[in-house]
Design goal:
The chain contains two helices and no strands. The chain starts with a helix and ends with a helix. Helix 1 runs antiparallel to helix 2. The chain has 122 residues and is mostly helical. This is DUF4179 domain-containing protein. It comes from Blautia wexlerae. Keywords: Membrane, Transmembrane, Transmembrane helix.
Length: 122
Amino acid sequence: MLKDEERIAEVKRRIAKKEQQQRLRRRRIVSAVCIAACFAVIVGVSFAMPGIIGRIEPGTSSGFETAATILGGSTALGYMVIGLLAFILGACVTILCFRIHQLNKEEQTEKQKEDNGDGADQ
């Protein structure tokens, strides 16, 4: 039979294990939501981009594209918009990859703790 201290320690260990599993589950859900949001942004921007570029009007000062200004025509503004969106998308993908790497690292650490803990009990 187990002593009271051993029972209390076992209950505390089980509680800690369940709390760790809940934290891991929450992190997975947050990561999945972030990934879904990133894909939604990608798809939304890809469908909206032709309309955005179509609404941009060329400069009205002379009607001719000149070499003296890089922002005078609609193509330059389109490139800037696409560049900005590409930067935002790259930042989102970098953050998501970092979160996935961190989640995998935590899972491996948890598995190692479980393996070490189970082996010590036997």
